Amino acid sequence: EKIEIWNDGWDYRKRPSLQAMLETLGEKILNEPFPKGGTWHLNSATHGDPFSAQWNVLNIDGKSAFPVSKNLHHPELVDEICAEAIPWLASTMGMMGAAFGDKKVAKLR
Predict the structure, then answer these.
(1) Distance CA 73, CA 58 (A)
(2) How far apart are CA 84 and CA 52, in angstroms?
(3) Does the pTM exceed 0.85?
(4) Distance between CA atoms of residues 10 and 14, nearest Å
(5) Regarding predicted confidence, which is higher, 106 or 80?
(6) Quick one: how far is CA 52 from the chain centroid?
(7) For residues 55 and 71, is the Cβ–Cβ distance under 8 A?
């Protein structure tokens, strides 16, 4: 359904959100619903918004500080994000391979 958006450059304002894409995969491919709001913590942790304070508050000179951007100083946070994201990425790539196959992927390039 979204191949035209992809072919047009996958514009940020037109493309579906990660949440919407995972909901579609869950409903149409896995026959299981993906939890509503299931990606908020991944977005929060990677984009450094106020909800990410649970991961991103730092101790600077004995005082708590919240960085104005992403926190790039905690590799354990990256490990946590990857542990959750990698299975979904692998599933998505498998579904793409099954849906498009080698011949159809070559046509899109």
Answers:
(1) 9
(2) 16
(3) no
(4) 7
(5) 80
(6) 15
(7) yes
